[in-house]
Amino acid sequence: MIFDFQNPDYTAEFKRRAENLARLRADPKKIPLIKAYYKDNIADFISDWGMTSDTRNAEIGRPVIIPFVLFERQREWVDWLIGQWRDRKSGLTDKSRDMGLSWLSVAVATSMCLFNKDINIGFGSRKEEYVDKIGDPKSLFFKARQFLDLLPDEFSNGWRSKNDSSHMVIRFPGMGSTLTGEAGDNIGRGNR
Question: How far is CA 132 from CA 100, 109, 120, 144, 162, in A?
Fold first, then answer.
């Protein structure tokens, strides 16, 4: 299915996802296989199950919580980022506004923690409130918690915000992986 980003049909995408989830739930033996696939195909996982939020949709009568369907440039970035991580290389992304990179960064990091054991991914900013401020949709960890909350249970590994997150930390049950936040002048000087 080709998604029309100019005139998105979220109803069709929700229907597609519901049908896929019903098929998985009818044959739960397939869940470990699909998780193994998604571990190596993070962009597909995000496009198949991820959700995002765009409050500007309210003013034009579209849903605010919407399927996170990646466009080609976003897929390329995800593949590049995962490649940099696997090759143990640094990388820099020059971005413009409204390309979804904050959401995409959070979705990739969260997905990596869902499918990989014992990794720690850090987010930092000059101001702590940009990384994590409970209840503030602008903060990165708000986005990460929302991404996790909106996943089907089959993919969340039992994650529950109340039990598995605190200020500047999100833990992934059964995986030993974490997202951690830092702010201010000492970013990157802590544990590695």
Answer: 18, 15, 16, 10, 15
